[in-house]
Every structure is written in C-alpha cells, then in structure tokens.
Amino acid sequence: MTQPTIQPTPVYGIGDTTYQAAGGLEGITRLVDAFYNYMDTLPEARRIREMHVEDLNPSRQKLTYFLSGWMGGPKLYAKHFGSISIPVAHSHLPIGMEDKDAWLLCMEKALADQGYEPAFQKYIIDKLSIPAESIRLMCEFKAKNQDQ
C-alpha cells in the first residue's frame, strides 16, 4: 500500500510565493477587476467609490501594478509611477473605519471569487488590513490637524 503524499502548506510572503499563488499578473488583474466591480456595486462601498473618478481604469492599473510588487512579483508600480507611500498617497481622502471596512469587504469578495485557497485569502486580507489601517489613521490624523 502506498502512503498518500502530504503536500506542504504553502508559505506566503517569501520570494514570489504570494505572487505565484495569486496567479501572477493575470491572476492579480482578475482579482483587481473583481474588486472594482464590487466597489461599483456594493451599497457598503458607495462612499469609497465616490472618492474615485468616474473612469476606474487608471485605478485598476495602479492597484494591479502595486499588488504585483507587494506580492513579490515584478515591481511594476515603481517602474511606471515611482515610489509610493500608501498612507500619504491617500491622506487627502476622508477615510474612516467604515470606509476601510468597505474596502476590505470588496477585497474579501474579490478574493473569494478567484477560487483561491481559504488560507491564501485569509493571508491576503490579514496583510492588506495593515496598510488599510495605516491609511485610515493617516487620514484621521490629517483631518484632526486641519481642524485645529
């Protein structure tokens, strides 16, 4: 009798493992398209959608390029747009807790649509929650200091 082969649990965040698990640039592009489709349709996301211009194509490209490098793939955002501080880039927006939660909800739904392993989905949401909270705190800080 042969023993079943035990597949090791993937380790994300090392090298390009996250990028590969996402399906490379094609997979990330599908993820971002699903994300923005949810932003366009979910009532919870209305406020964050209104923070964007009508044409989401530039936002789609920027998020795709950003996620590529963030996931350990080609650093396309830096190549095409230069370096970025995510919290500073969003600090002009009135992003609060509900907005952060709506953004993460759109991403959770988009991740689920891709058929990714549940562990990968959780990993991505956990990791994206960190910059999402940094953005919210930066926006809150900037808003408080403008009021004084």
What would your notes on this structure say?
The protein has 148 residues and is mainly alpha-helical. The protein has a single domain (17-147), classed as Globin-like (Orthogonal Bundle), CATH 1.10.490.10. The chain contains eight helices and no strands. It has helices at 17-21, 24-41, 46-50, 57-70, 76-81, 86-90, 97-113, 118-147. The longest helix is centred in the last third of the chain and has 30 residues, at 118-147. It is elongated and about 75 Å long. The termini are far apart. The model has no long low-confidence stretch (mean pLDDT 93).
Tally the helices.
Answer: 8
For the biggest sheet, the summary is: none
Find the CATH topology: Globin-like
Instruction: Report the CATH superfamily.
Output: Globins
Residues in β-strands, percent: under 5%
Name of the CATH architecture:
Orthogonal Bundle
Please report the total strand number as a whole number.
0
Sheet/helix structural class: mainly alpha
Average pLDDT, rounded to a whole number, is: 93
Helix content percent band: 55-70%
The coarse silhouette is: elongated
Give a concise summary.
This protein is mostly helical and 148 residues long.
Keywords:
148 residues; mainly alpha; 8 helices; elongated
Q: Which helices and strands occur, and which strands form pairs?
A:
Layout: H1 17-21, H2 24-41, H3 46-50, H4 57-70, H5 76-81, H6 86-90, H7 97-113, H8 118-147
Helix pairs in contact: 2-4, 2-7, 7-8
